[in-house]
Amino acid sequence: MKLASARKNIRLGKMVEIEALLRDAEFLGLGRVVIDGAAVRSDAVPWRPCVETSDGFSFTRLFLKKIEPISNGVALRLEALGEPGFYSGGRIDFHYERVPSSAAGVRRADLDILLEKSAVEIEGLTYTGFSMRYVLRLHGTKAFQLLDKGDWEIGGRATGNIIVSQSQCCEPEHHCARASSFHTWVANARIVNNRDTMDFLSYCFTPRFGSMQCFDFLDAKQGSLLVFYDRMEHIKGSVFKESGQEVIHHQDLCTLGLTDRFEPPAKHVLLHKTTRHETHEFRNRWTACRDFVFQRYQKQYGIREDYPQTEYHSWLDWKPDHYTGHHVYPKDASHWFYDMARVVVPAMKKMGFERFFDGGLFKSHFTENPAEHHPNFTMYDYVISDQFGGNKALAYFCGKCRAQGLDFSLWLNTGLGRQSPIFEQHPEWLLHDPHLGPYTSVWGHHRVFDLNQDGAFNFMKDRFTRLIREVGITGILHDSFPNMGSMKVNWRDPKLRGHMQRTLALMRYLQQLGMYYAVEGSGPFGVQHGGLGSTQDLAMGEVAYQWFRGKEYSLFRTCRALGVDAFLGGDLDNADYFRLLANQAPLCLVTGHKGNTVKGYSAGMGSIVQLGDEFARMQKAYNRARLRMQKRTLLPDQQGVLWRNNRTKETICYAFKNFALPVKGGFDSEELVEGEKGHGRSVCRLQRNRVYVIRGKIENPARDRTSS
């Protein structure tokens, strides 16, 4: 793109200045933006929308007609010209081919860019800036998605910025330098180019409601920048910085369904100015922003936030190379749950686990034809297989769990195996790709439900309602939550709708039935689950603990899965686990692979007692504290973590060091690991690796002192 020949400054009150880049009458995009005297982006990547219609027109040329005031800001009135381009619903994803359009002529559209003043207060700090909203009115054609491209860098350059991103597939905290690089999909870099493996699944753009942080957060010496959407829609995004560049690219692909009036939600860009830069303070600001945005979206969709439980995970068939599709499978598993009730439930109780999870139990091509080595998610139906004793055996096990105060979660996926008779009976329930063939998900053995079809949606509701009532399950782990349905568009759907809203409707329905709802992913909906791979054998989507050591705060309210063998082998130790629990991030411990018989497997699972007494005490302390841990504050100098509970007026403190905590007017305390009690007038003395509940008015030693 040629450089702008003119630059027009737009002011929103006294705080915000936005630059429009022009070449004669042609609008190239928005350039430099300044908030409260601090630049928050450069003009290196003009900020503008990209639109391709479903019938093959690319709206690449924009012309500014006028700028006029509106109630709280200004409107840029533009004309957009669409010319024949490429026809492909997923052109942004790595694996979708771009097919040249057979369309002819030129299409016209009206595009308004609405810029308005905006400000919010979060935990006593003011974030000031503006909101930007597109309104696209098409003539003679329709669009269903819009790509918003731009960049954000506090100070106008990447160096000195810190990216904090609680996402499924990237490092949690990246300190930018000119030579550094960052990608929100980095953990999947080795698989995105393998078309045979991934089968049209891209991690270049990941759902902001499921596997990527639903807001952007940058910090630098000038302040903290928060970028979020006014409401959550079917939005996929990416954030990346290339080595040698001073640009942090931010791109969002918004899918709203086929329409001639395309109006994505407003994007808020807000800065909190600072005069000093303390590590614990910017991390606490990120925490507060996360709470603010998550709670906003949860309220919009009626979704409850659950706090992660200590969890033990079994998967009968897996062995370490399970991603090859070959599985260990016992010939007779009908006594599986009876043996588990005898061996594993007492061990779980002793080690302080609250929840048991099992997957792969449904009748499938795997259970009916094990010699063919099909994976166990080639389900025929959401019906417990007789190979595992059916509903009777699972109901027996759930009853034994309840008797010990334990919960039970079952695996959920929004699709069935390609051999399922359900799809033979209802082919209209299938999702179809841009070439009108059925989506086959990541391993090629799976077909995905179109949840916008009422029949498919009600089928899933019915099946899991039965499992709740007839078996007694109390939780769900929704595997592949962001990419097994909610990420896709059905190209046989005349409206080309996304699936986020129907996916959340299913979650909301099951939550209303009392289900604890976990998801494989990272986002505002459901307890965040994911893999924490060993350093020797990272699996798809899993990352090593090295990313998080010293930055455990970034795993806030997540539940990472790790093999028992990896824990016992030293990938993590009790000190690491204490820091995870301090951030409400318990591990989901996964059974080791101890042989291919039920008896051998059960004995192996009973070996969790090898985790030791200290591990058990930490888990039991967390169980007592978990529901009280509502508002998190990281203490200075890595001293520990405070949690406020405004309802009970209690404070939970995880101490990483020996230190003294100031208290006004006296206090009572109880140490939850060893059970010691104490009281005093002004100073509560805490010991390292201990958990305290404190009743009294604590002077916050981590207050944010950075406000200008």
What does this structure look like?
The protein is of the alpha+beta class and 708 residues long. The protein contains 12 helices and 41 strands. The protein has a 16-stranded antiparallel sheet that branches. The longest helix has 23 residues, at 279-301. The chain is flat and about 80 Å long.
How would you briefly describe this protein structure?
This protein has 708 residues and is an alpha+beta fold. It is built from 12 helices and 41 strands.
Helix fraction, binned, reads 10-25%
Main structural class: alpha+beta
User: How many β-strands, per DSSP?
Assistant: 41
| Distance, first to last CA | 39 Å
Range of strand content: 35-45%
Please compute the radius of gyration using only Cα atoms. 26 Å
The biggest sheet amounts to: 16 strands, antiparallel
Overall geometric form: flat
Please mark out the parts with pLDDT under 50 across 5 or more consecutive residues, or reply none. 88-98, 188-202, 317-328, 536-541, 593-598
- So how many helices? 12
Can you give the mean pLDDT? 86
